[in-house]
Amino acid sequence: MRLLCLKVNLIQINSFNNISANIRKTGFIILFLYLFIAILFKILELNNSIDFSISFNNEIYEPPSLNHLCGTDRLGRDVCLRTLQGSNIAIEIVFLSLIFAIGLGLPLGLVSGYFGGFFDRSLSLIMDTIFSIPVILLSVVIAFVFGKGIINAAFALCIVYSPQYFRLIRNQTISIKSSDYVQAAQISGASNFRIIRKYIIPNIITPLPILLTLNAADAVLVLGSLGFLGLGVPADIPEWGSDLNLAIAALPTGIWWTALFPGLAIFFLVLALSFIGEGMEDQLG
Fold first, then answer.
1. Are the CB atoms for 163 and 128 separated by under 8 Å?
2. What confidence score (pLDDT) does residue 210 get?
3. Residue 237 to residues 69, 83, 216, 240, 247: CA-CA distances in angstroms?
4. How many CB atoms lie within 10 A of CB 217?
5. What is the pLDDT of residue 4?
6. Among the listed residues 265, 267, 278, the one whose alpha carbon sits nearest the alpha carbon of residue 214
7. Which whole-number Å values give the CA distances from 205 to 198, 210, 261, in the listed order?
8. For residue 148, what is the enclosing H or E element?
9. How far apart are CA 160 and CA 137, in angstroms?
10. How far is CA 2 from CA 12, 39, 61, 274, in A?
11. Which stretches within the chain are classed as H helix?
12. Parts of the chain with a pLDDT under 70
């Protein structure tokens, strides 16, 4: 009987692991598709191979057809091209913002957790205060202060997410600092730089990919919210949130395609990043 129960448990564990792996693979496939589209359209844009400006030859609000698979918007622009180009902007801003957030939160959390003292208490108070403010509210305030732009939007998201990396790295550093092998290294006369480089850093970066992907999914939604409120990037740059804002006025008249495709683009990118994050969490957990 015990052997039978053990076999059932093993089957359930293997089934769960297979589902988790399939979810993670699906997320990576969707994400790679977005990355391919973003890189392709960035190259075409730099080479002036595609004109993303207003086309006066197109009918405004033309429904999806063979000529325009996703229809046209209120200025006669192809919704497909504009939505696909929006993936380039979204990935660029999210990537920059998280790199900035890690670059700010990781060293501060490492130094704060390792040395402690007044610096640790002061920095923890500042980061906890920022962390307590709702994400969308803080990002809106920062974006409003600094204005529109790719770097400004990335900076706003960086300030929002850097406390999470600070808290994670600080707590991991405090835990590892009290371990036996770190204390043995300190007794043997190893320098703080050597201890941090050899013992602390390799052990604190393990959970970072999980937090990175989950924050990226959340950042896509926050960026879309900023664009919807008119606080993201300039109006001439294709961005899903701003396109959704423009599409709202046309929805009551039955023009649905200008809102559907940017919304689907946001949905599937968030879904892919969430799948990757949850799959990695199950694997490492």
1. yes
2. 86
3. 21, 11, 21, 10, 16
4. 20
5. 42
6. 278
7. 12, 10, 37
8. none
9. 10
10. 15, 55, 67, 37
11. 2-46, 79-115, 117-132, 135-146, 150-177, 180-187, 192-195, 201-204, 208-228, 240-248, 257-284
12. 1-17, 48-57, 282-285
Using alpha carbons, list the distances in angstroms from residue 200 to 48, 81, 203, 208, 272. 47, 46, 6, 14, 31
Residues in the chain: 285
The tokens of 54 are what? 């207003």
Q: For the segment 81-128, what is each residue's pLDDT rounded down to a tens digit?
A: 889 988 988 999 999 999 999 999 999 999 999 888 888 999 999 999
Give the contacts of 257 (CB within 8 A, at least 6 positions apart): 63, 64, 70, 71, 79
| Domain ranges (residues) in the chain | 59-284
Distance of CA 23 to the CA centre of its chain: 18
Domain 59-284 top-level CATH class: mainly alpha
78/132 Cα distance (integer angstroms): 41
Token pair in block for residue 61: 């609000």
What letter represents residue 61's amino acid? Y
Q: Residue for token digits 């990396």? A: 165
